[in-house]
C-alpha cells in the first residue's frame, strides 16, 4: 500500500513539465493547467456587444450631374447658393430613408430632387479629380456602409443629382440654409449675414454706401483739392503756358529748362543729382512766384522743395523689400526724406537713375496699403497701438510724400475723410461712417 501512494517517474516528469510551462507562459497556464481557450463565437459575441459610436461625415452637394470635383475657388459660390460642403453625424443603424431625410434637412434644395441622387467618391490627386459612384446595397445607403466607404469619416462624399440641375443663384442672408452658420454685421450698412458672405458683400457695400467713400484717384476729373490750394503762391505765368496737359513741353522744376513730356522724367532723375549750388537764382525766383493753377503744378511745387544737397540712400533686398525698407528708412540718420532718394539692390550692380527708385516706392506704397490700412477699395488706417509705437504710420506718411514728390505712385486708396485730414488737418465726423471710430475721434479732438 505504501508503494502504491508514491508518484511514479512518469508522473514526476509530467508535473515538472507543467511547472516549467506555467512559469514560462503564465498567461496560458494557471496552477499548472492550461487556460481554457475562448471559443470563436464568444469572441464575436463580445465584439458585437461593444458600443458603436456615431461618426461625422463630410458631404458636398453639387448643382448638376458632373464627373469631376469642383474647383476650390468655386466652393464659395456653392455655399452662397445653399449647396457645397457640410458635416453631418451618422449612426450605424441609419437607414436609406433616414439618410434622405437628414440630407433634405441639411440641404433644403434637395427636396426638389425627390431622391434622384447618388453618392460619389473622388479619386486621389490634386485639382479637379474624377469621381466614381458608390454602389448601393440591397437596402440602399446605410450608416455602416458609409463609414466603411469614407474611411471612418476621413473622406468627403459628393451628392450628385441624376436628372435635375440646382440653381446656383446666391440666397438671401436670412435663408434657412444659413440658420446654423456664424453671422456678423456689416460695419457700413449694419446688415447681418454669414461670415462667408461678408467678404463679397463688403465689396458692393463699400462702393455703394456713400459717396464719401469715393477713392482719391488721378482719373477723377471732377475731384477738387480746396485744402491744397489754401496756400497760394504768386504767379508770373498763365495756366495755358504752364500745365503739361495743355502743352507739349514741361519745365524741369530743378533747372528750369523745358523738355518734352516723354523725356522730362528721365531728365529729372539725372538733374536731381546736382548740388544746390547749381540752382540758378532765376529758378529760385520762378518756383517761389508761380501760382498753382492745376494738379500738375502741385506735383511740380513739391518737387521744387526737394533738398539736393544730400542723397537719401537705401540698400535693400528684392526678396524682402517692404520689411527691410521700413527698417532702413527708420534707421537712416545721414539724410532725410526731403533729400533725393537713391536705391540700390543687394547683389546688383547699377546706378539708380529713377527706375529703381520708382520700383521701390511702388512696392512700399502697395505694402503700406496692405499692412497699415483696412478696407476693400476706400481704406482707413488700422487701429494698432504697436504699429503706432513703432512709428510705422509716421514712416508711411514720409514714404507717401517722397513718392509723390519724386516720381512714385500716389496712395490712391484713402477714404475721403482720411484725405481731407491729411491735407488740411481738419476732420468732419459726418464723413466717418464707422460707428466705432466716431466716439474715439471725438475724444481725441
UniProtKB/TrEMBL annotation:
The species is Cyprinus carpio
Keywords carried by this UniProt record: Ubl conjugation pathway
Species lineage, top-down?
Eukaryota, Metazoa, Chordata, Craniata, Vertebrata
Indicate what this protein is called per its UniProt record. Answer: Uncharacterized protein LOC109052859
| A GO molecular-function annotation | ubiquitin-protein transferase activity
| Superkingdom to which the source organism belongs | Eukaryota
Q: In what residue span(s) does the HECT domain sit? A: 333-365
Amino acid at each position: 500500500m505504501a508503494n502504491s501512494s508514491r508518484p511514479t517517474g512518469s508522473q514526476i516528469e509530467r508535473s515538472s513539465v507543467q511547472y516549467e510551462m506555467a512559469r514560462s507562459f503564465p498567461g496560458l497556464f494557471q496552477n499548472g493547467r492550461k487556460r481554457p481557450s475562448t471559443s470563436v463565437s464568444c469572441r464575436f459575441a463580445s465584439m458585437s456587444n461593444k458600443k458603436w459610436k456615431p461618426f461625422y461625415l463630410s458631404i458636398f452637394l453639387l448643382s448638376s450631374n458632373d464627373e469631376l470635383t469642383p474647383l476650390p475657388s468655386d466652393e464659395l459660390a456653392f455655399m452662397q447658393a445653399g449647396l457645397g460642403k457640410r458635416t453631418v453625424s451618422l449612426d450605424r443603424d441609419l437607414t436609406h430613408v433616414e439618410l434622405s431625410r437628414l440630407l433634405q434637412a441639411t440641404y433644403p434644395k434637395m427636396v426638389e430632387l425627390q431622391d434622384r441622387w447618388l453618392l460619389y467618391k473622388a479619386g486621389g490627386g490634386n485639382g479637379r479629380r474624377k469621381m466614381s459612384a458608390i454602389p448601393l446595397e440591397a437596402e440602399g445607403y446605410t450608416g455602416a456602409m458609409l463609414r466603411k466607404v469614407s474611411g471612418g469619416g476621413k473622406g468627403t462624399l459628393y451628392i450628385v443629382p441624376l436628372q435635375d440641375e440646382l440653381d446656383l443663384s446666391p440666397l438671401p442672408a436670412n435663408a434657412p440654409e444659413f440658420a446654423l452658420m456664424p453671422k456678423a454685421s456689416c460695419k457700413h450698412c449694419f446688415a447681418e449675414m454669414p461670415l462667408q458672405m461678408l467678404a463679397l458683400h463688403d465689396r458692393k457695400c463699400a462702393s455703394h454706401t456713400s459717396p464719401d467713400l469715393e477713392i482719391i484717384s488721378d482719373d477723377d476729373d471732377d475731384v477738387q483739392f480746396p485744402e491744397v490750394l489754401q496756400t497760394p503762391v504768386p504767379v508770373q505765368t498763365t495756366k495755358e503756358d504752364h500745365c503739361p496737359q495743355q502743352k507739349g513741353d514741361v519745365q524741369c522744376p530743378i533747372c528750369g529748362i523745358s523738355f518734352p513730356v516723354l523725356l522730362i522724367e528721365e531728365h529729372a532723375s539725372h538733374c536731381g543729382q546736382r548740388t544746390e549750388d547749381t540752382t540758378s537764382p532765376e529758378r529760385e525766383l520762378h518756383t517761389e512766384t508761380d501760382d498753382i493753377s492745376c494738379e500738375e503744378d502741385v506735383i511740380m511745387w513739391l518737387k521744387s522743395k526737394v533738398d539736393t544737397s544730400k542723397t537719401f540712400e537705401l540698400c535693400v533686398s528684392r526678396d524682402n523689400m517692404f520689411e527691410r525698407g521700413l527698417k532702413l528708412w527708420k534707421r537712416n540718420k545721414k539724410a532725410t526724406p526731403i533729400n533725393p532718394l537713391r536705391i540700390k539692390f543687394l547683389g546688383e550692380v547699377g546706378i539708380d537713375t529713377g527706375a529703381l527708385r520708382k520700383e521701390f516706392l511702388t512696392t512700399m506704397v502697395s505694402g503700406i496699403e496692405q499692412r497699415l490700412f483696412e478696407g476693400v477699395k476706400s481704406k482707413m488706417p488700422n487701429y494698432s497701438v504697436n504699429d503706432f509705437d513703432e512709428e510705422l504710420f509716421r514712416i508711411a506718411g514720409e514714404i507717401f510724400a517722397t513718392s509723390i514728390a519724386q516720381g512714385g505712385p500716389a496712395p490712391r486708396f484713402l477714404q475721403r475723410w482720411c484725405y481731407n485730414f491729411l491735407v488740411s488737418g481738419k476732420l468732419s465726423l459726418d464723413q466717418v461712417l464707422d460707428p466705432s471710430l466716431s466716439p474715439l475721434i471725438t475724444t481725441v479732438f
